[in-house]
């Protein structure tokens, strides 16, 4: 029998966060946006929260780019901040950063700038999510709100083939060769990242539904 620790890290993280993923996916807010059941301002609100989160995450990525363990995960084509700035500009409104988002950013500031495994945990949770469910969500939101070209750049990764990228990313995880403590730190922090994302989605749901 294979113990969990013998499985590749990419398998451990996927299986180990199934429940968290279900909670993130089932939060209701993203589905409501995908179905066009909320005002466009709710989508602008989500975009504003993303802006704050990626601003911090991508500062951490710049800091980690030369790290021997985390640097391999940093890829310029993932950078979302310019796309989010363009989306916010197009969507307008006066977005506020919600307390749940501030808490998320505070956690990033605490762990993602000097702990490689924790940084990769946050990097994985956002970008692999964006390149998975995000690839369905983006077009659904664009359709629901009649966005053609502008307003949903966040979901469009120029020069990235999502399935191939995910495969390569999993390989990087599996070949990282981290000692057990760092693997555990990664797995624990991915759960924390899910929790922080779920809290942001819950705050948005509370506001808009
Ligand atoms: C409507 C909401 C969502 C849908 C429909 C959705 C759907 C999916 C699907 C179908 C996959 C599997 C892709 C594959 O097997 O290759 C996936 C993977 C993933 N999702 Fe989501 N998702 C949603 C929300 C979220 C949220 C809010 C997060 C966290 C911020 C997230 C994080 C992830 C991650 C990290 C993966 C990669 C798992 C892995 O293969 O290791 N998802 N999602």
Helix content: 55-70%
The portion of residues forming beta strands comes to under 5%
Bound molecules: protoporphyrin IX containing FE
SSE ordering? HHHHHHHHHH
Number of strands: 0
Structural class comes to mainly alpha
Sheet with the most strands?
Answer: none
Unreliable residue runs = none
* Separation, N- and C-terminal Cα atoms: 47 Å
Helical stretch tally: 10
Gyration radius from CA atoms, angstroms: 17 Å
Shape: globular
What's the overall average pLDDT, rounded? 96
Can you describe what's shown?
This protein has 209 residues and is mainly α. The chain is 67% helix and 0% strand. The chain is globular and about 45 Å long. The N and C termini lie far apart (47 Å). The site of protoporphyrin IX containing FE has 19 residues, from helix 1, helix 2, helix 3, helix 7 and helix 8.
């Amino acid at each position: 029998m294979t113990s969990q620790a013998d499985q590749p890290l990419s398998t451990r993280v996927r299986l180990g966060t199934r429940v968290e993923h279900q909670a993130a996916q089932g939060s209701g807010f993203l589905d409501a946006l995908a179905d066009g059941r909320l005002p466009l301002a709710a989508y602008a609100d989500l975009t504003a929260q993303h802006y704050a989160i990626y601003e911090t995450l991508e500062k951490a990525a710049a800091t980690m780019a030369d790290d021997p363990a985390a640097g391999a995960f940093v890829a310029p084509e993932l950078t979302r901040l310019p796309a989010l700035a363009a989306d916010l500009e197009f969507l307008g409104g006066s977005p506020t950063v919600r307390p749940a988002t501030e808490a998320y950013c505070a956690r990033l500031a605490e762990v993602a700038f000097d702990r490689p495994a924790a940084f990769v945990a946050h990097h994985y949770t956002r970008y692999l999510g964006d390149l998975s469910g995000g690839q369905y969500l983006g077009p659904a939101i664009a359709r629901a709100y009649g966005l053609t070209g502008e307003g949903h750049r966040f979901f469009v990764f120029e020069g990235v083939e999502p399935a191939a990228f995910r495969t390569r990313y999993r390989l990087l995880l599996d070949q990282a060769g981290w000692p057990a403590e760092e693997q555990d730190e990664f797995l624990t922090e991915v759960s924390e990242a899910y929790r922080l994302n779920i809290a942001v989605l819950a705050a948005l749901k509370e506001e808009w539904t």
